[in-house]
Each structure stands twice: as C-alpha cells, then as structure tokens.
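Record 1 of the preview.
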Amino acid sequence: MKFPPAFQSRFLVGVSTAVLLASAVAAQDKSSQSSSSSSSGSTDQTVAKPLTKKEIAKKQKQLEKELAGPWKKWLNEDVVYIITDEEKQAFKRLKTDEERQQFVEQFWLRRDPTPDTEENEYKEEHYRRIAYANDHYASGIPGWKTDRGMIYIKYGAPDEIDSHPSGGSYQRPIEEGGGQTSTYPFEDWRYRYIDGVGTNVIIEFVDTTMSGEYHISLDPEEKDALLYVPGAGLTMAEQMGMADKTQRFQRTDGTHLGTGNQPLPESMNEFTRLEQYANLMKAPSIKFKDLDSIVNSNIRYNTLPIQVRIDYIRVTDATVYANIAVQFKNDDLNFLSKDKVAKATVNIYGRITTLTRRSVNWFEDTVTAEIPAEMLQQAMNGSQIYSKRIPLAPGTYRLNIVAKDTVGNTVNNYECALNVPHYDEDQLGSSSVILADQLERVPTNSIGTGQFVIRSAKVRPRVNDVFKQDETMGIYTEFYNLGMDQKTKKPEGTIAYEVVNASDNKTVLSQTEDISKIPNSSAFLVTVEKKLPLKSLAPGKYTLKLTITDKLKNQTLSPSAQFTVTS
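->
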C-alpha cells in the first residue's frame, strides 16, 4: 500500500523539524559553555540530513504494517472485484478503524436490493459466490483469483456453458473459418444480459497449459492446439486454397483467424472485443445509482426549491404513521410544451435511516404536472404537492429526500430529523395539528387509501401554513388514551379552541365543546375535524391552541400550530 506524496511530505517535514530543533538546542548549550572562544573562532553546527530513499521506504513499510489486517483483506480479497475505483480511493484516505467500519456498512448498504429488511441479499450472495469459486475453480491458486472465479463472483452463473474439459477434436463455427482441428480445454460462457456490458455476452476461457487454470481469451484461435503445426487444423478457406495458414500470423486485429479476407461479424470486431473485455473488468454497476448516490453524498444541492412537512398519526402503541408532504412551486419547475400541453416531471427518491445510517424504509415516485399551454402563465402561482405515508416505530430517524426536475435537470437534496413520538397508554396523547387547505370526507371504499387520506377524511396540508383571508382553513388532529366512563363507555371532557394573535398575544377567537358531542369519539380515539373561515382575521401571524381536558383521568394536553393570514 502506497501513501500519497502529500502524506510523505508532511511526514518528512515533521521528522526534519524535530531534528533541526534538537540541533539548535545543542548548539545553544555549546555556545553558552564556550562563549570566550566564540570570539576567536567559529563554532561547529549540526545540519539535519534529509531521509534517504531507503529510510523513507522503511517508514512507509512500518505504516503499511500498522494498516495491515482485516481491512487489507477486505479491500484486496473480499471486494476486490466489486469495489469501484472511487470507493477504493475513498477507503484508502480513511484514518481510523471507526471510519473504515462505517464505510464498509455504507458499501454493502448501497448494493442492498431490499434496504428496508434486515438481510442484505447482495452481501450474502457475494460471499456465497466466493465460496463456490473456491470450490470449483481452484487450480494451484484459490478459485477467487482465477478468471472464471472473477467473472462468476461479479456476474453470477452464466445462462449457458459450452464446456470442452478435455479439448480434442473440434469443428469450428463458420465465423471462425470452419474446418476441423484439435483444441486445448476451453469453456464458452454465455450471458443473455449483463448490465453495463451488453446483451448476448460470450466469454471464452482457455486452458493452454493443460493444468486446469483457464484464462480469458480475446483470440478465438488461442484454443487451437494445431495453430503452429504446418498443414494441420486448416480452415475451409485454407483447404480450398483461398487462404494460406501463414496469413493467420499477419493479421493486425489481435487474432489468428484463418478466414482470409472475409469480413468478420460485428461481435468479433477488434474494438468490440476490447470494449467488452474492458467493461467486464470494471466493477459491476450499483443498483441505486442516480438519486441514491446523491442521498449518500455529504454535498447538499438546492437548485430545485422544495418545502417539506411531516405530521405524525398514531396507528397502534408500537406504530406511528409519518405523513410526509413535499411541495413544489410551479414557477420553480421547468415545463416542456408538446401538443398544446405543458408538462413538468419531478422524480422523488426518499430514504429513512437510523442515526447510524441503517436503512429503515425508502420510497420513490414521480410527480407530474400537466397544464394547458395557454394557461401556463396563470398557473405559475400554483404548486404541486406529493404525499407519502410511512409506518415507523417510535424513535429518532434521519429523512433524506432527493427531488430531480427531469426537464430542467435541477436537484434538491433535503435532510431532516424524524422525531416519531411514543404514546404511553396511561398518558393523554395527540397527533400533529394539521392545518389543511382541503378537508373532506372520502367514500367508504376509499377509507385509508390514497394520498392525503387519514382514516375516513382527505386532509391535504398547507405545507407552508400560509392562508389568504378569503380561504377556509381546515383543522385536523387526533387525541388518544382518554379515560372511559364504565356506564356510558364514553370519554368525558372538553376541548377548547383558541386563536391567538402573535403580535400582541391576544385571543381573537375561542370556542369550547364537549367531547361526548364529537362524532365517533371513544377512549381510544377522538378525532377533531373543523373548518375555520379566515375572513374575520386581519393579516398577520396567529397561533391555534387546542386544550383537551380529560375529566376522568384529570389530565390536560395543549397541542398548537402556527399559521399566517395574508390579504
């Protein structure tokens, strides 16, 4: 393992500085002891010598020894075929074992096809392939080091194998010149499709040493055991006198085909073969490449403005819905007009992880806005809202959302914390207070399904909490774990609604209602669905306070929400 020049330079500078300081101290002591002789003669000075190449190599070897161990084995053996060059360079720059451990976790997480489950199928399959390669392709060296082992570990078992383990008599296909010859042991592996390589991929392995060690061959004639025997193993063109065997060694395309001047098929073209080989040598492509790579990045993009709102609704004591709403303003989107219709498309990729970056859930969707071209200018003041409901256990999580405008190629990488509340069955609890611009009942067959639907109501939140005076504001919230009267089987208490002007802290609206009068109220759940006309409120900022009093448990809870009224 070699270290960057910058590291070596800092190391040498540090050593040289220490030696120079020691020399200066020694010179000062000597000067103080022989001050009388300093006037008549000059004192000797010690100059630090730079490290020789041998000493530098020794120091580097010591550092390599410090870094050797399981990390070196992981990098040079376990993932040597599947790690990308960028990941390898990033891993080598890490300084501590903790950083390396986090890198390894992220490495496997990026390749996990089901990040919302505990098992990482990609990782398990990878180590199974290594074990299979060691069992079936070893030939004096471990199976994972052989070419067949490398291809198997990268791309799995081929769709077809044409195996000739003993070589012997072989009838060439017509594209190789036809005719009969004798061959070394060889195998042709065929893959119908390899991502990043192509379709109908054929890889030929030849054992020219007869030792069981097959290697990838780019020359179809490398398997011909009679290639260097004059007059033997002739192709059809050579048998008919249309070509001479010596012409095979005059080709400039890297092969020894005996096809004379006949054109080769595209799959055997020199550049096609080299391109396929180069692609096979690359690390396999990662499943989540585009938006997922942005999620894993520490760089934050904000070329596409978005607004995000999260509300929490209890399902059970152990599960809470996180309702995620993402809003895009129309004038921030890029519209493409076609057939008198202007269309904007935004791809959304979201991931929820623990604080240690362990994936918990993920989602991806597309938001499309279609507006008649002649009405596009008027629609610029509007917005598009996307909603996603994710069930989570109580706790703290990290939410990453990447939104990409496919027309304008603008991106936003948004990150925030999800503080999912825990509801104690003995304590009065509440959901988020949702201020909505649309609050209505849904048909029976739509209960609990669709965007913005909470139980039996469609609640579309106003993401920025800004309303106009001529609008009606919807209020939705839920209360949990109330006491129950044993006779009526109903809760007892009141809910007070209060709107407070934030500028002077004065109450401008207030109302109180009995819980028993709220439809479908129970000790388990009390749902508040109200509509508040805003025409009586002057423009400004306000706070909505809901105070619920449980008379049976003698408990009180006061959730609130802020909103703004504009003219």
